[in-house]
Amino acid sequence: MSVLKVHYFLWFGSLSGIMPFVAVFATQHSVANTEDIGILYFVLPFIVSIFKPLFCSIADRNNSHKKVLIFSIIATILGYGLLLLIIYVNFGVFSWYMFCILILIANSGQGIVISLNDYLVMKEVTRLNRNYGAYRVWGTVGWGGFGVIAGIVNQYITKLPFLLPGLLMFRKPLSVVLKAPFKASWKAVVHVFHIFRNNPSLIQYIVIVLIFGALTAFHWSYYFIYLEKIRGNDSLLMGLALFVESFAGELPLFIVANVILRYCGPSMSLNISLAAFAFRYFIYGYVFTVGTTYWDILLVEVVQGLTFGLFYTVMTDLAQHYATQENHRILAAREAIKEMADKDTEAVDETIAVNSVDDLTSRSYATLQGIMSGAFEGIGLGIGALAGGYLINRIDVFAIWKVGAFLALFAIIFNVSVEAIKYVYNKRHVK
Protein backbone atom coordinates (compact mmCIF):
# COMPACT_ATOMS: atom_id res chain seq x y z
CA MET A 1 0.00 0.00 0.00
CA SER A 2 1.20 3.51 -0.81
CA VAL A 3 2.64 5.39 2.17
CA LEU A 4 0.35 8.28 1.22
CA LYS A 5 -2.73 6.08 1.70
CA VAL A 6 -1.38 5.02 5.10
CA HIS A 7 -0.83 8.66 6.03
CA TYR A 8 -4.38 9.61 4.98
CA PHE A 9 -5.72 6.72 7.09
CA LEU A 10 -3.76 7.58 10.23
CA TRP A 11 -4.00 11.36 9.93
CA PHE A 12 -7.78 11.54 9.54
CA GLY A 13 -8.14 8.77 12.11
CA SER A 14 -6.31 11.00 14.59
CA LEU A 15 -8.36 14.07 13.70
CA SER A 16 -11.62 12.13 14.17
CA GLY A 17 -10.90 11.87 17.88
CA ILE A 18 -10.52 15.64 18.19
CA MET A 19 -12.16 17.85 15.54
CA PRO A 20 -15.82 16.84 16.03
CA PHE A 21 -15.47 17.21 19.80
CA VAL A 22 -13.70 20.58 19.89
CA ALA A 23 -16.82 22.79 19.86
CA VAL A 24 -18.35 20.75 22.68
CA PHE A 25 -15.07 20.96 24.59
CA ALA A 26 -15.06 24.76 24.24
CA THR A 27 -18.58 25.16 25.62
CA GLN A 28 -17.79 22.85 28.54
CA HIS A 29 -14.43 24.30 29.61
CA SER A 30 -14.53 27.99 28.67
CA VAL A 31 -16.90 30.93 28.90
CA ALA A 32 -17.62 30.80 25.15
CA ASN A 33 -21.11 30.43 23.70
CA THR A 34 -21.98 29.17 20.21
CA GLU A 35 -21.79 32.67 18.70
CA ASP A 36 -18.24 33.08 20.05
CA ILE A 37 -17.31 29.73 18.51
CA GLY A 38 -18.91 30.79 15.23
CA ILE A 39 -16.83 33.99 15.12
CA LEU A 40 -13.67 31.98 15.85
CA TYR A 41 -14.47 29.45 13.12
CA PHE A 42 -15.18 32.33 10.74
CA VAL A 43 -11.80 33.96 11.34
CA LEU A 44 -9.75 30.73 11.43
CA PRO A 45 -10.06 29.70 7.75
CA PHE A 46 -8.87 33.12 6.55
CA ILE A 47 -5.85 33.11 8.86
CA VAL A 48 -5.04 29.50 7.94
CA SER A 49 -5.34 30.48 4.27
CA ILE A 50 -2.38 32.81 4.83
CA PHE A 51 -0.21 30.24 6.59
CA LYS A 52 -0.91 27.42 4.13
CA PRO A 53 0.55 29.03 0.98
CA LEU A 54 3.35 30.64 3.03
CA PHE A 55 4.71 27.38 4.42
CA CYS A 56 3.95 25.41 1.26
CA SER A 57 5.95 27.94 -0.77
CA ILE A 58 8.83 27.61 1.71
CA ALA A 59 8.71 23.84 1.18
CA ASP A 60 8.67 24.31 -2.61
CA ARG A 61 11.47 26.86 -2.69
CA ASN A 62 13.81 24.80 -0.54
CA ASN A 63 12.60 21.35 -1.63
CA SER A 64 11.94 20.63 2.05
CA HIS A 65 8.45 19.14 1.97
CA LYS A 66 9.25 16.44 4.52
CA LYS A 67 10.69 18.92 7.05
CA VAL A 68 7.72 21.28 6.72
CA LEU A 69 5.34 18.32 6.98
CA ILE A 70 6.96 17.10 10.21
CA PHE A 71 6.99 20.63 11.66
CA SER A 72 3.29 21.06 10.81
CA ILE A 73 2.34 17.72 12.39
CA ILE A 74 4.18 18.70 15.58
CA ALA A 75 2.44 22.11 15.61
CA THR A 76 -0.92 20.35 15.26
CA ILE A 77 -0.13 17.96 18.11
CA LEU A 78 0.99 20.80 20.40
CA GLY A 79 -1.99 23.00 19.55
CA TYR A 80 -4.58 20.33 20.25
CA GLY A 81 -2.60 18.71 23.06
CA LEU A 82 -2.27 21.87 25.13
CA LEU A 83 -6.05 22.27 25.02
CA LEU A 84 -6.13 19.80 27.90
CA LEU A 85 -4.59 22.48 30.13
CA ILE A 86 -7.78 24.52 29.80
CA ILE A 87 -9.52 21.94 31.96
CA TYR A 88 -7.34 23.08 34.86
CA VAL A 89 -7.39 26.82 34.05
CA ASN A 90 -10.32 28.52 35.79
CA PHE A 91 -9.66 32.14 34.86
CA GLY A 92 -12.87 32.96 33.03
CA VAL A 93 -12.20 34.75 29.75
CA PHE A 94 -8.50 33.81 29.86
CA SER A 95 -9.42 30.17 29.18
CA TRP A 96 -11.28 31.29 26.03
CA TYR A 97 -8.33 33.34 24.76
CA MET A 98 -6.04 30.41 25.45
CA PHE A 99 -8.41 28.14 23.51
CA CYS A 100 -8.42 30.53 20.51
CA ILE A 101 -4.61 30.73 20.33
CA LEU A 102 -4.15 26.96 20.59
CA ILE A 103 -6.85 26.24 17.99
CA LEU A 104 -5.17 28.72 15.64
CA ILE A 105 -1.85 26.88 16.01
CA ALA A 106 -3.48 23.47 15.59
CA ASN A 107 -5.64 24.42 12.60
CA SER A 108 -2.73 26.11 10.82
CA GLY A 109 -0.56 23.04 11.23
CA GLN A 110 -3.40 20.77 10.24
CA GLY A 111 -4.16 22.77 7.10
CA ILE A 112 -0.52 22.71 5.98
CA VAL A 113 -0.33 18.94 6.51
CA ILE A 114 -3.45 18.31 4.42
CA SER A 115 -2.25 20.65 1.63
CA LEU A 116 1.17 19.00 1.42
CA ASN A 117 -0.34 15.52 1.53
CA ASP A 118 -2.87 16.41 -1.19
CA TYR A 119 -0.06 17.83 -3.33
CA LEU A 120 2.01 14.65 -2.97
CA VAL A 121 -1.03 12.50 -3.73
CA MET A 122 -1.85 14.55 -6.84
CA LYS A 123 1.68 14.07 -8.13
CA GLU A 124 1.47 10.33 -7.52
CA VAL A 125 -1.97 9.81 -9.10
CA THR A 126 -0.94 11.87 -12.12
CA ARG A 127 2.26 9.87 -12.54
CA LEU A 128 0.58 6.48 -12.05
CA ASN A 129 -2.71 7.43 -13.79
CA ARG A 130 -4.71 6.53 -10.67
CA ASN A 131 -7.98 7.82 -9.19
CA TYR A 132 -7.71 10.43 -6.43
CA GLY A 133 -10.75 8.91 -4.70
CA ALA A 134 -8.89 5.61 -4.26
CA TYR A 135 -6.43 7.47 -2.02
CA ARG A 136 -8.85 9.82 -0.25
CA VAL A 137 -11.17 6.99 0.76
CA TRP A 138 -8.51 5.80 3.24
CA GLY A 139 -8.99 9.05 5.11
CA THR A 140 -12.68 8.19 5.40
CA VAL A 141 -11.86 4.70 6.72
CA GLY A 142 -9.55 6.20 9.35
CA TRP A 143 -12.04 8.91 10.30
CA GLY A 144 -14.92 6.48 10.79
CA GLY A 145 -12.94 3.68 12.41
CA PHE A 146 -11.10 5.74 15.01
CA GLY A 147 -14.05 8.10 15.48
CA VAL A 148 -16.24 5.40 16.98
CA ILE A 149 -13.37 4.23 19.20
CA ALA A 150 -12.90 7.79 20.48
CA GLY A 151 -16.62 8.02 21.20
CA ILE A 152 -16.61 4.78 23.22
CA VAL A 153 -13.52 5.83 25.19
CA ASN A 154 -14.94 9.28 25.99
CA GLN A 155 -18.26 7.75 27.03
CA TYR A 156 -17.11 4.91 29.27
CA ILE A 157 -13.61 5.80 30.46
CA THR A 158 -14.53 9.07 32.08
CA LYS A 159 -11.28 9.46 34.03
CA LEU A 160 -9.37 10.17 30.82
CA PRO A 161 -9.22 13.82 29.72
CA PHE A 162 -11.49 14.70 26.80
CA LEU A 163 -9.77 14.65 23.35
CA LEU A 164 -7.02 12.32 24.64
CA PRO A 165 -7.84 9.37 22.30
CA GLY A 166 -7.23 11.52 19.22
CA LEU A 167 -4.06 13.02 20.66
CA LEU A 168 -2.59 9.58 21.34
CA MET A 169 -3.21 8.62 17.72
CA PHE A 170 -1.16 11.53 16.36
CA ARG A 171 2.13 9.79 17.02
CA LYS A 172 1.29 7.23 14.31
CA PRO A 173 1.12 9.56 11.27
CA LEU A 174 4.22 11.34 12.58
CA SER A 175 6.14 8.05 12.67
CA VAL A 176 5.04 7.26 9.10
CA VAL A 177 6.26 10.63 7.84
CA LEU A 178 9.59 10.27 9.66
CA LYS A 179 10.23 6.96 7.92
CA ALA A 180 8.93 7.90 4.48
CA PRO A 181 11.40 9.11 1.80
CA PHE A 182 9.43 12.05 0.43
CA LYS A 183 10.95 13.64 -2.65
CA ALA A 184 9.24 16.43 -4.49
CA SER A 185 10.08 19.36 -6.68
CA TRP A 186 7.44 21.78 -7.80
CA LYS A 187 7.68 24.89 -9.93
CA ALA A 188 4.68 26.90 -8.80
CA VAL A 189 3.15 29.01 -11.57
CA VAL A 190 -0.07 30.87 -10.93
CA HIS A 191 -2.62 30.48 -13.76
CA VAL A 192 -5.61 31.93 -11.91
CA PHE A 193 -6.25 34.96 -14.14
CA HIS A 194 -5.87 32.97 -17.36
CA ILE A 195 -8.03 30.11 -16.09
CA PHE A 196 -10.96 32.35 -15.17
CA ARG A 197 -10.60 34.41 -18.31
CA ASN A 198 -10.71 31.35 -20.54
CA ASN A 199 -13.25 29.37 -18.47
CA PRO A 200 -15.98 31.76 -17.24
CA SER A 201 -18.27 28.82 -16.38
CA LEU A 202 -15.86 28.05 -13.55
CA ILE A 203 -17.47 30.93 -11.62
CA GLN A 204 -20.74 28.98 -11.47
CA TYR A 205 -19.02 26.04 -9.77
CA ILE A 206 -17.05 28.25 -7.41
CA VAL A 207 -20.34 29.74 -6.14
CA ILE A 208 -21.77 26.24 -5.65
CA VAL A 209 -18.62 25.09 -3.84
CA LEU A 210 -18.86 28.14 -1.55
CA ILE A 211 -22.40 27.14 -0.62
CA PHE A 212 -21.25 23.57 -0.01
CA GLY A 213 -18.58 24.97 2.30
CA ALA A 214 -21.18 26.89 4.32
CA LEU A 215 -23.51 23.87 4.53
CA THR A 216 -20.64 21.61 5.57
CA ALA A 217 -19.54 24.11 8.24
CA PHE A 218 -22.97 23.81 9.87
CA HIS A 219 -22.44 20.09 10.33
CA TRP A 220 -18.71 20.06 11.12
CA SER A 221 -18.96 22.85 13.69
CA TYR A 222 -22.33 22.36 15.38
CA TYR A 223 -23.67 18.85 14.83
CA PHE A 224 -22.38 17.52 18.15
CA ILE A 225 -23.82 20.54 19.97
CA TYR A 226 -27.12 19.64 18.29
CA LEU A 227 -26.81 16.02 19.45
CA GLU A 228 -26.21 17.23 23.00
CA LYS A 229 -29.44 19.20 22.75
CA ILE A 230 -31.60 16.25 21.67
CA ARG A 231 -29.77 13.37 23.41
CA GLY A 232 -27.69 14.87 26.22
CA ASN A 233 -23.95 14.35 26.70
CA ASP A 234 -23.65 11.07 24.78
CA SER A 235 -20.13 10.54 23.44
CA LEU A 236 -20.97 7.00 22.30
CA LEU A 237 -23.65 8.34 19.95
CA MET A 238 -21.18 10.90 18.61
CA GLY A 239 -18.67 8.16 17.84
CA LEU A 240 -21.31 5.93 16.25
CA ALA A 241 -22.45 8.86 14.10
CA LEU A 242 -18.89 9.26 12.76
CA PHE A 243 -18.73 5.50 12.12
CA VAL A 244 -21.99 5.43 10.15
CA GLU A 245 -21.13 8.60 8.21
CA SER A 246 -17.83 7.09 7.14
CA PHE A 247 -18.55 3.39 6.50
CA ALA A 248 -22.23 3.46 5.51
CA GLY A 249 -22.07 6.89 3.88
CA GLU A 250 -18.77 8.12 2.47
CA LEU A 251 -17.02 4.80 1.80
CA PRO A 252 -19.53 3.33 -0.70
CA LEU A 253 -20.06 6.71 -2.35
CA PHE A 254 -16.35 7.28 -2.90
CA ILE A 255 -16.34 3.91 -4.68
CA VAL A 256 -19.31 4.59 -6.99
CA ALA A 257 -19.08 8.38 -7.24
CA ASN A 258 -17.22 8.26 -10.56
CA VAL A 259 -20.03 6.14 -12.04
CA ILE A 260 -22.66 8.65 -10.90
CA LEU A 261 -20.53 11.49 -12.24
CA ARG A 262 -20.07 9.78 -15.59
CA TYR A 263 -23.79 9.21 -16.12
CA CYS A 264 -25.19 12.38 -14.54
CA GLY A 265 -22.47 14.94 -15.22
CA PRO A 266 -21.04 17.43 -12.70
CA SER A 267 -24.01 19.80 -12.44
CA MET A 268 -26.61 17.09 -11.90
CA SER A 269 -24.30 15.30 -9.44
CA LEU A 270 -23.96 18.51 -7.44
CA ASN A 271 -27.75 18.89 -7.47
CA ILE A 272 -28.07 15.38 -6.05
CA SER A 273 -25.66 16.30 -3.25
CA LEU A 274 -27.53 19.53 -2.56
CA ALA A 275 -30.87 17.69 -2.48
CA ALA A 276 -29.36 15.29 0.07
CA PHE A 277 -28.27 18.28 2.17
CA ALA A 278 -31.79 19.75 1.97
CA PHE A 279 -33.33 16.43 3.04
CA ARG A 280 -30.84 15.91 5.88
CA TYR A 281 -31.17 19.41 7.30
CA PHE A 282 -34.96 19.36 6.94
CA ILE A 283 -35.00 16.23 9.13
CA TYR A 284 -32.67 17.89 11.66
CA GLY A 285 -34.68 21.10 11.82
CA TYR A 286 -38.29 19.96 11.53
CA VAL A 287 -38.52 16.25 12.41
CA PHE A 288 -36.01 15.40 15.14
CA THR A 289 -36.88 16.52 18.66
CA VAL A 290 -35.50 16.00 22.15
CA GLY A 291 -35.37 12.27 22.83
CA THR A 292 -35.08 11.11 19.21
CA THR A 293 -33.86 7.49 19.13
CA TYR A 294 -30.39 6.27 18.19
CA TRP A 295 -31.69 4.44 15.14
CA ASP A 296 -33.43 7.46 13.65
CA ILE A 297 -30.35 9.65 14.14
CA LEU A 298 -27.89 7.12 12.73
CA LEU A 299 -30.08 6.24 9.75
CA VAL A 300 -30.04 9.84 8.52
CA GLU A 301 -26.23 9.96 8.78
CA VAL A 302 -25.98 7.57 5.82
CA VAL A 303 -26.77 10.64 3.67
CA GLN A 304 -23.21 11.83 4.43
CA GLY A 305 -22.14 9.79 1.41
CA LEU A 306 -24.08 12.07 -0.92
CA THR A 307 -23.43 15.33 0.91
CA PHE A 308 -19.65 14.85 1.14
CA GLY A 309 -18.41 11.76 -0.73
CA LEU A 310 -20.15 12.55 -4.01
CA PHE A 311 -19.56 16.29 -3.72
CA TYR A 312 -15.84 15.95 -2.98
CA THR A 313 -15.37 13.63 -5.96
CA VAL A 314 -17.16 16.08 -8.24
CA MET A 315 -15.07 18.97 -6.92
CA THR A 316 -11.77 17.21 -7.64
CA ASP A 317 -13.06 16.08 -11.04
CA LEU A 318 -13.99 19.65 -11.94
CA ALA A 319 -10.46 20.73 -11.06
CA GLN A 320 -9.11 18.03 -13.38
CA HIS A 321 -11.58 19.00 -16.14
CA TYR A 322 -10.69 22.68 -16.17
CA ALA A 323 -6.98 21.86 -15.82
CA THR A 324 -7.25 19.70 -18.93
CA GLN A 325 -8.99 22.51 -20.81
CA GLU A 326 -6.28 24.93 -19.74
CA ASN A 327 -3.61 22.46 -20.84
CA HIS A 328 -5.16 22.13 -24.29
CA ARG A 329 -5.28 25.90 -24.65
CA ILE A 330 -1.66 26.33 -23.62
CA LEU A 331 -0.44 23.44 -25.78
CA ALA A 332 -2.30 24.89 -28.77
CA ALA A 333 -0.65 28.24 -28.12
CA ARG A 334 2.75 26.53 -27.90
CA GLU A 335 2.19 24.93 -31.31
CA ALA A 336 1.26 28.33 -32.74
CA ILE A 337 4.43 29.86 -31.28
CA LYS A 338 6.55 27.07 -32.76
CA GLU A 339 5.10 27.82 -36.16
CA MET A 340 5.91 31.49 -35.70
CA ALA A 341 9.43 30.79 -34.45
CA ASP A 342 10.78 30.57 -38.01
CA LYS A 343 9.50 34.10 -38.55
CA ASP A 344 11.75 35.46 -35.82
CA THR A 345 9.02 35.82 -33.17
CA GLU A 346 10.13 37.45 -29.96
CA ALA A 347 9.26 36.70 -26.30
CA VAL A 348 7.06 33.89 -25.12
CA ASP A 349 4.53 34.19 -22.33
CA GLU A 350 5.70 32.46 -19.13
CA THR A 351 2.43 30.57 -18.80
CA ILE A 352 3.11 28.96 -22.18
CA ALA A 353 6.83 28.31 -21.77
CA VAL A 354 6.73 25.03 -19.87
CA ASN A 355 9.17 22.18 -20.07
CA SER A 356 6.85 19.19 -20.47
CA VAL A 357 3.23 18.08 -20.62
CA ASP A 358 3.57 16.42 -17.20
CA ASP A 359 4.89 19.66 -15.69
CA LEU A 360 2.02 21.56 -17.29
CA THR A 361 -0.57 19.13 -15.94
CA SER A 362 0.89 19.33 -12.43
CA ARG A 363 0.81 23.13 -12.43
CA SER A 364 -2.73 23.54 -13.77
CA TYR A 365 -4.21 20.80 -11.62
CA ALA A 366 -2.57 22.06 -8.45
CA THR A 367 -3.82 25.58 -9.19
CA LEU A 368 -7.41 24.49 -9.85
CA GLN A 369 -7.44 22.23 -6.80
CA GLY A 370 -6.19 25.17 -4.75
CA ILE A 371 -9.00 27.40 -6.09
CA MET A 372 -11.66 24.78 -5.33
CA SER A 373 -10.38 23.87 -1.87
CA GLY A 374 -9.90 27.56 -1.05
CA ALA A 375 -13.55 28.26 -1.88
CA PHE A 376 -14.72 25.21 0.09
CA GLU A 377 -12.40 25.10 3.11
CA GLY A 378 -11.59 28.81 3.28
CA ILE A 379 -14.41 31.21 2.52
CA GLY A 380 -17.28 28.71 2.55
CA LEU A 381 -16.46 27.08 5.88
CA GLY A 382 -15.71 30.46 7.46
CA ILE A 383 -19.02 32.03 6.44
CA GLY A 384 -20.95 28.93 7.46
CA ALA A 385 -19.34 28.76 10.90
CA LEU A 386 -20.05 32.45 11.57
CA ALA A 387 -23.67 32.28 10.40
CA GLY A 388 -24.27 29.02 12.26
CA GLY A 389 -22.99 30.35 15.57
CA TYR A 390 -25.12 33.48 15.21
CA LEU A 391 -28.28 31.49 14.45
CA ILE A 392 -27.81 29.07 17.35
CA ASN A 393 -27.05 31.82 19.86
CA ARG A 394 -29.78 34.22 18.75
CA ILE A 395 -32.55 31.71 17.94
CA ASP A 396 -31.92 28.02 18.74
CA VAL A 397 -29.97 24.97 17.60
CA PHE A 398 -32.76 23.95 15.21
CA ALA A 399 -32.67 27.23 13.26
CA ILE A 400 -29.31 26.45 11.65
CA TRP A 401 -30.68 23.34 9.96
CA LYS A 402 -33.84 25.08 8.75
CA VAL A 403 -31.74 27.80 7.11
CA GLY A 404 -29.37 25.17 5.71
CA ALA A 405 -32.22 23.24 4.08
CA PHE A 406 -33.49 26.34 2.26
CA LEU A 407 -29.94 27.38 1.32
CA ALA A 408 -29.42 23.99 -0.34
CA LEU A 409 -32.68 24.38 -2.28
CA PHE A 410 -31.63 27.88 -3.37
CA ALA A 411 -28.32 26.47 -4.63
CA ILE A 412 -30.18 23.88 -6.72
CA ILE A 413 -32.35 26.59 -8.28
CA PHE A 414 -29.27 28.72 -8.97
CA ASN A 415 -27.40 25.81 -10.55
CA VAL A 416 -30.33 24.75 -12.74
CA SER A 417 -30.91 28.36 -13.85
CA VAL A 418 -27.28 28.84 -14.87
CA GLU A 419 -27.30 25.54 -16.76
CA ALA A 420 -30.44 26.65 -18.63
CA ILE A 421 -28.81 29.97 -19.55
CA LYS A 422 -25.67 28.15 -20.75
CA TYR A 423 -27.80 25.78 -22.84
CA VAL A 424 -29.69 28.60 -24.56
CA TYR A 425 -26.47 30.57 -25.13
CA ASN A 426 -24.61 27.61 -26.63
CA LYS A 427 -27.57 26.66 -28.81
CA ARG A 428 -27.74 30.15 -30.31
CA HIS A 429 -24.01 30.30 -30.96
CA VAL A 430 -23.94 26.86 -32.57
CA LYS A 431 -26.48 28.07 -35.09
TrEMBL record:
Residues 3-326 form the Major facilitator superfamily associated domain. It comes from the Eukaryota. It is found in: Membrane. SUPFAM superfamilies: MFS general substrate transporter. GO terms for cellular component: membrane. The chain crosses the membrane at residues 7-26, 38-56, 68-88, 94-116, 137-157, 202-225, 237-261, 268-288, 294-315, 371-392, 398-418. It is a multi-pass membrane protein. This is Major facilitator superfamily associated domain-containing protein. Keywords: Membrane, Transmembrane, Transmembrane helix. InterPro entries: MFS_assoc_dom (IPR024989), MFS_MFSD6 (IPR051717), MFS_trans_sf (IPR036259). It holds the Pfam family MFS_1_like. Belongs to the major facilitator superfamily. MFSD6 family.
